[in-house]
Amino acid sequence: MSAAEQLAALRLRIDALDEKILELISERARCAQQVAKVKKDEGEAAMFYRPEREAWVLKHIMELNQSPLNNEDMARLFREIMSSCLALEQTLKVAFLGPEGTFTQAAALKHFGHAVKSAPMAAIDEVFREVAAGAVNFGVVPVENSTEGAVNHTLDSFLEHDLVICGEVELRIHHHLLVGETTKTDRITRIYSHAQSLAQCRKWLDAHYPNVERVAVSSNADAAKRVKSEWNSAAIAGDMAASLYGLTRLFEKIEDRPDNSTRFLIIGNQPVPPTGDDKTSIIVSMRNKPGALHELLLPFHANSVDLTRIETRPSRSGKWTYVFFIDFIGHHQDPLIKDVLEKIRSDAVALKVLGSYPKAVL
């Protein structure tokens, strides 16, 4: 058989497989419609999206995957199928730190898929307010970066709002130096970006543009928008902003650390049942006395609970008083975790469970 004949036969097989895939996706979509009807009949309209169910499906798919496609690619395909099917039940509204083109929007689409209705907000606190008011189903906010640490605006917003953490997203962050059509690349005098992005590219900028002004703006997407109308400026931003605002990558992947990643939180109003692979986030206020931090951490050590993060922020209750933000492995309904929280509560001034949620799948 000639090469042309082999290709023709393979294409016919691919066409047949595509038809089967179409049939199976259609069947799944019809099942989703039936699920919506059952939930509406039982009065569960507020619970169409189940974070624990979505996480289980994606993990199950990756465990079963034996194809040439890697787990991340396979999960991404199923994420979009699930997103479109969920939209047949209920179109989710998701607020994110805008404007359009930010890494936070990329995180929202990674977690929920492209079938959601996303709403850009000008500030992190606005995301919290939209979720609290019920104007959107969920919000997506950055909480920490592997290079620059905690996002304090997000931590402080948890002190002011009673919302639940429903999930997390980890996003690999690649920064590019972007220019517009009118930019004179040999006469760049100003580089715009978010303060954290400028910090994440500090060494690269010192080496390549040591004398150029670095201007911190509200977001990387805002930086990209500014560059379109200025001939002497550039922006540091990601792929989404470059595509959305029609900018060219003058230099790619300029972040100082190759493993640069940001963690985002999904905030909502519904608690999430255990999945068996969860995290819990809490806020604790301790009495200001010697050994307070030791007392706080001792129950975790005694119960062999893995702490993944601890941050300190000034308390709103008084000068030189502080609260601790703590993330750890486990669900607050687990007996072991319940014991830890009871011991902490007995010594703490205040303890607030922000939520238990599935660990990031991808």
TrEMBL record:
The keyword Metal-binding does not apply. Gene3D superfamilies: 3.30.70.260, Chorismate mutase (1.20.59.10), Periplasmic binding protein-like II (3.40.190.10). Keywords: Amino-acid biosynthesis, Aromatic amino acid biosynthesis, Cytoplasm, Isomerase, Lyase, Multifunctional enzyme, Phenylalanine biosynthesis. Residues 281-358 form the ACT domain. One of its GO terms (molecular function) is chorismate mutase activity. The record marks T262 as: Essential for prephenate dehydratase activity. It comes from the Bacteria. SUPFAM superfamilies: ACT-like, Chorismate mutase II, Periplasmic binding protein-like II. The keyword Ligase does not apply. Residues 93-269 form the Prephenate dehydratase domain. Residues 1-93 form the Chorismate mutase domain. GO terms for biological process: chorismate metabolic process; L-phenylalanine biosynthetic process. It is found in: Cytoplasm. InterPro entries: ACT-like_dom_sf (IPR045865), ACT_dom (IPR002912), Chor_mutase/pphenate_deHydtase (IPR008242), Chorismate_II_sf (IPR036263), CM_dom_sf (IPR036979), CM_II_prokaryot (IPR002701), G/b/e-P-prot_chorismate_mutase (IPR010957), Preph_deHydtase (IPR001086). Pathway: Metabolic intermediate biosynthesis; prephenate biosynthesis; prephenate from chorismate: step 1/1; Amino-acid biosynthesis; L-phenylalanine biosynthesis; phenylpyruvate from prephenate: step 1/1. One of its GO terms (cellular component) is cytoplasm. It catalyses: prephenate + H(+) = 3-phenylpyruvate + CO2 + H2O; chorismate = prephenate. Its EC number is 4.2.1.51, 5.4.99.5. Catalyzes the Claisen rearrangement of chorismate to prephenate and the decarboxylation/dehydration of prephenate to phenylpyruvate. This is Bifunctional chorismate mutase/prephenate dehydratase. It comes from Ventosimonas gracilis.
